[in-house]
Amino acid sequence: MSDLANVYQLFRSKFEDNDFQYYYPPSYIRSLTECDDKIIFAFRKVQNHILSSEMDTVRPKQSPNSNSSLDLTGSPLRDVSFEQFEEMNLSKEYQESSVQNLWTVDEETYAPLSTEKARSLLQAFISLECRIGRGSIWVLCCGTDSEQKVLLQLSVNAASNNQRHFTRGVVRFSGVQPSNSITLGQLIDIHRQRAGEGMKFSPKIQIQQWCKLHAQITLRLSWNTMGEGSTFAVERNARVRLSQEFPVNNGAFSRSSPAEYFWQQLQRLAMMRERIMDIRANRESGYARNDVCGEAEMDLEYIKQKVNNILSSFLEVEPVTYNFSTIIDMVSLVQKRKLTDVMERLYDALTLCSSYEDLKAAIDYIFHLSTHSNIVNVPTNGTRFAQLILAMIQDRLAIPLLTGSEPYELLLECGFSKLMNDYRTIFTEAGIYELEFEKLFQPQVTNTRKSRYATGNGPQLDTHHGAPSKRSATQLFQSAAGDERVREKSILLSNFDEDEVKLRLNRLAQVHLLLEHLLLLESAVNVPSIYGRVCELYLGRAPYSYGEVYNRRTDLLEFELDEFMLLRKADQVLPCARRVTMSSANMLQRLETVFYQNVKPILPGRFYPQFECKEVDSKHEFWCYEYDRIESL
C-alpha cells in the first residue's frame, strides 16, 4: 500500500529541475515487479514524436449502416463520429506502435535522467528530513553507464518513531540473447555472484512463462522449481492463467464479426432509448425522420399487409433442430432462423417503418385488427404490447391512442425480448451456458437519483402530435363493453424506466462481448471445456456501460484454470516472455533477483539507441533485464 503524498510534494519542491508523477507505475515497472501500487516516478517530460499524448484519449464513435430498416444504430456519444475520426488521418507509425510496442503512448514522453543524476537525486532524498510515508520511488535512467542501469528504486518504509527503513533496487539491461542460449544455471550463477559468499542461496525458484496462442491470446504458466539442475521445461502442475484481449476498436469490431447482426440489433435498441428520452424532453429530434430511415424501408401499406398476414394467416410451425459443429455455426443458424413467435414477427415488421408517424400508424392498425378481425395467431409472450393485443382480442380493452414516446416504448420492449431470446438460444443450444437474464438485470447498486424523464408515471405533453388523450399514457383502460367482471386493471401503455433500460443495454452489451470472446477462443484455442467457466467469470463482473464500449480499444478477459489441454498447446509454441525470481539472505540482508526476458523491448527505443538489436544468429531471441532488490532485515 503506497502512502507517499507528502514525499511527492517534497520531491516537487526540492527538485524542481525534474518531472515527477505520483501514480500507478508504467508498464515496464509493472512487468518487473508485478505490483500496481502507486509510486513516485522521476523522469524528464518530452514531446511525443509519434503522436501527442492527448490523442490517446480520443475515441471514435461507430455507427455502421444496417441492412434493415428503422436503422436505429449508433451510440450515445454524439461528439465524434467514426467517419470524422478516420478523417483525423492518424499516422501509420502511431497505429503500428499501438499494436507492436509493449509500452503505452504516454510512456513515449517519459525520457530518462543520467544515471549519476538519478543516484544523486535518491541520495539527496535520503539525507532530507521528511514526514512518514511508505511506498516506492523510481527513477528512469539512460543506461549509458558501464552496467547499463535503466531504473533505480528506493522503497520507503517509515516507522512511527520516524526511523526510516530503505530498500534499494536497480534494473540493468543485460543485452539481447538467443533464447536457447539462456539456462537456469546461468541465471543462478549471476545471482550468486551478486549475493556473495556471505548469503545463503534459497533453493526455491519461481518461474513464470508467457506464450502466445494467438495475437490476442496469451497463456501465463507459473510454477516453482527446486535445485540448481532445474530447467525451463514447463511442469505438469503449473498454474495456468489465460488472458485474451478482444479488439473492440472503439466499436468498430462488429464490422468483421460473425455476430454483427446481433450487435446491430443492440444498437437499434440503444437508439430507440435515445428517441424516447428526446421525446420525453420535448426535443424535436425524437420525431426526426432521417435517423430512422434504412435501406430496406417499406411504405405503410406494405407494412399493414405484412402485419395482417402475421395476425390473420395460419403459420405452419415445425420443430426446430439446430445442426451445428461450432459456435460460429450456431450464431449463423440463429440469425437466419424462421421467426415463429407472433411478437417477434410483428417487431420484425414494425422495424421496416421509415418514420415515427408510420410506426405509430402501424401499431394503431394492429390495435384495430385485434378488435375487429378474426385473429388466429394470438400473442403469448409477456410484453406489454402482447398483453394489450390479447386484451383487445378478448374485448377487455378499448383501442388506446398512442402519444409521445409510447410507440417506441412498446417497440423497445419487444426488441429487448427478441434479442434476449436470440442470445439465450445461441448459448443454450450450443451447450455453452444457461443465461439467466432475470438475475443479470438485477441492479447491483441502488441509485436513488433518477432523471426526471426516467419513469412514465406522469402524463407526457406531446406538443408535436397533439394533446394527451384520455386513453393514453398511464391511464388504466376500461372494458369497451363495460363488463366489470373482465375490466382490465393493470396494463400500462407507458412504463419507461431510464435506469432499467440502461441496465439492460449494459448487460446485453456484456453478453455480446462475451459471445465475441467465445468466438475468438473457439477459433484460436478450441477447448470447449473452458467455455462455461469463462461465462461464469465474465458475467460475474460489473458490465461496462453500452456507451463505454465505443471508448475502448480492447476488452480484457483474464482467468485462471486447470486445463491440461492448454498446457499441451503451450508446449507447441516458443515462450514470448519469462520471469525468473530467486533470492539469497543472511541475518542482516536479503537479495532478490528478477530475471525478466521478452521477445520485445519493454522500454521505448527512442531513448535507448545504444540498445538497438544487433544481428543475432537466432530466430528467437530475448531482450534481457535484471532487477536486483536488496533490503535490510
TrEMBL record:
GO terms for cellular component: RZZ complex. The keyword 4Fe-4S does not apply. Residues 54-73, 451-470 are annotated as: Disordered. It holds the Pfam family Zwilch. Keywords: Cell cycle, Cell division, Centromere, Chromosome, Kinetochore, Mitosis. It is found in: Chromosome, Centromere, Kinetochore. Component of the RZZ complex. Essential component of the mitotic checkpoint, which prevents cells from prematurely exiting mitosis. Required for the assembly of the dynein-dynactin and MAD1-MAD2 complexes onto kinetochores. Its function related to the spindle assembly machinery is proposed to depend on its association in the mitotic RZZ complex. Belongs to the ZWILCH family. This is Protein zwilch. It comes from Anopheles quadriannulatus (Mosquito).
